[in-house]
Amino acid sequence: MIRLENIQKRYQDFEIKSINLEVKKGEYFIILGPSGSGKTLLLEMIAGLVKPDSGNIKGIEHSRFGLIYQDYMLFPHLNVAQNIGYGLSIQRKKKNEIKAAVEKTSRELGIDHLLHRSVNNLSGGEKQRVAIARAMVLKPEVYLFDEPTAALDMSTRLQTQRLFMRLHKELHPTVIHVTHDFEEALALGEKIGLLLNGDLIQLDTPKEIFRNPATKAAADFLGYKNVFSGKIQNNRIEINGVEITTLVSHSDLAYITIRSNDIIISKEKILSSARNSFFGEVTKVIQRGSYVEVVLDVGILLYVDITYNSCQEMGVEPGRRFWVTFKTSAVKVFEH
Fold first, then answer.
1. 224-334 is classed CATH 2.40.50.100
2. Is the pLDDT reported for residue 267 higher than 80?
3. d(CA 145, CA 178)
4. Containing H/E element for 243?
5. Which among 256, 261, 258 has a CA at the least distance from the CA of 333?
6. I want to staple 127 with a disulfide (CB 3.0 to 4.6 A). Which of 43, 53, 72, 123 is the partner?
7. HEC letters along 277-301
């Protein structure tokens, strides 16, 4: 287990603020946050490359670990085989041992045909696999990934994510993976630490973090579009004349948010236990890959995600009017 206890670090005008977290042995742990939130600085402290101003990091000091950056950090004057075997050569392993280990690892990653190539002539995905192989060949107990897919195109990024899944499933290493990508965090993480402005504001499973962000800042970062503020009285918050029912009875100042896929669009008013139902006009319909984002004006703008088939079947288009319905339990309230 890797444990961070009250880790603090000031760097110029930025500060890591008293981070406490545990990463279990064999866990795939994601540090998720936007650029400038302190993710890389935190990872470098875990790796021992940067010393914290205060606090303790336990469990990593005697572990073999492999650190992989988004820009690969390959040696341009060495070919692929020499890059992969570099760590073993530093350990003064025998040449035949290095050769066997490099060939085995490169086969596992599907890059054995590249061993004699210059790394300068490789694609981004190939370079990333070489960087992974260079770490793998040392048989690390812990992998530290710093935005490892950020520089890759979408297809290569997905291939690399599947590779990470396979490596974790087959080898069971502890992984601490830094990313700003929500989908990557959901696909890979068993536990997520959400880092904003140097502060670890939430630590939980991917499902719980994305379902129940702890603060308005977390909701904003995670892409919640229906975020409003106001005063709650008698379980109702009024926004621009629209009253939304909440589970919270009173608050002098609160933020609320409703997930886009927790809202139902219908031609007729739905008769159910859902307390929030409004009639409004479609202002925008935006294709978002596998789903359609619909924006309705019900006195406030509500963003709703529906399937492409539902959009077609109901004839959802700008200017048409529909009912929107959502449960009281779908209204997440932040009082800070």
1. yes
2. yes
3. 6
4. strand 242-245
5. 256
6. 72
7. EEEEEEEEEEEECCEEEEEEECCCE
